[in-house]
User: Fold this.
Amino acid sequence: MGLRTCLFDRHAAAGAKIVDFSGWDMPLHYGSQIEEHNQVRNDAGVFDVSHMTVTDVAGIDAENWLRYLLANDVARLEAPGKALYSLLLNHDGGVVDDLIVYRTEAGYRLVTNCATRRKVLIWLAQNSQGFMVQVEERPNLAMMAVHGPNSIALAHEALGADSTPAVRQLGNFESFEQGGWLVARTGYTGELGLEVILPAERAGPLWDALLAAGVKPAGLGARDTLRLEAGMNLYGQDMDENTSPFSANLGWSVNLRDEERDFLGREAVLQHRRLQQEGELPVLAGLVLEARGVLRSGQPVFTDKGEGVITSGSFSPTLKQSIALARIPWGSESCQVDLRGAMAPLKIVKPGFVRFGKRIFE
Amino acid sequence: MSNIPDDFHYTSTHEWVKVDENGVATVGISDHAQEALGDIVFVELPEPGTEIEARAEAAVVESVKAASDIYSPVSGEITQVNEALIDNPQLVNTAPYDDGWIYRMTINDERDLDELLNAEAYAEHCSDE
Assistant:
């Protein structure tokens, strides 16, 4: 038996297929992954993401420390209620993890991956020397993501009238706190939606209220195809400690505007950026298969500039064809994959296939 | 527990075959197999007219999770394929023993059927996996 979130009994009662996810017993789907995927694209679904790691940062050096630790710049978060996506980089500019950092009333909150929990907590501890900060993991908080075009309308009912005005005012990557809850317009699906971080004992009642309002549970299987359609990377699959952000389509999140800011990995990523400008660094591209078949992670692909590899591949339930993220040589113009002995052409696109329910590539 | 009808023959690789009164065999995959594969998104069907040996690769089922080869339970000639699966591959999930059949074939040698598992033996095989 693995670790269980406070919603495990509800998943089991709903007939979820439970799988091991980095030591956690998590719902893969509740019957059909594709139906759950479509539910999120067309209406509203809720994911239990309580397995993710929540860490609070406080203290007088909190901002300076995070400006040192994160490749994106928390100085952009001018007030509580703002959030941004960032990478944690090592000294070689490889990706230790990706995260969302929320500026809160008390300081900052980091939401990092589940699979990287131990490594990240050690990394934070090792790199906090000389800074006056308190770093506290919050294992007693639950987290759920409510996403889909109708998610916010349905969440109003479940969250209660008290929070309706605050939810209404939220812009993308904004949050508010109320009674120990943090409600944010963030997510991993390419749809409108909220992520709610709340005390574990309150998670069951909120889950039930969301379902009563018409939101349907969705599992980690749908979460993966939704994020792939949205062109969002999965840590450990599309990038890891040996990947430069510039080879992971994440150069945009490395904030180099403040030349005085000396963050971890800065020297290395400046070098990566030069290499990329010279065409020496591979890129993470989107691939679309027109033929019938499914691209899979780890499959080699062949471009006019050399070989590449699929980092995430699946069937896109929205587009009804296979899509992938792949690391391929810079400047590649054509691409093929071996499908059971026959070469099939792949269209190269910017990562990002579906946004707000619609196909977004040419 | 998955559904394992009594009047079918099964393989250890999770195909089923059912023979009608005219000796025509219908082939598909078991409920256990479709559940393990998850949502099925493509079925690559064989060409009617193909001669196929028992245990040879006859079709491919691709799910959200993996691609899976379908091996012919018996030797014979493929006579018909389930074209409904081209547009609606999820029939394999929703009705694996019925509308989700994959192909029909003649049987060269009825003794091939003796090599296969009956429902009871197949249920035991599934619980051992």
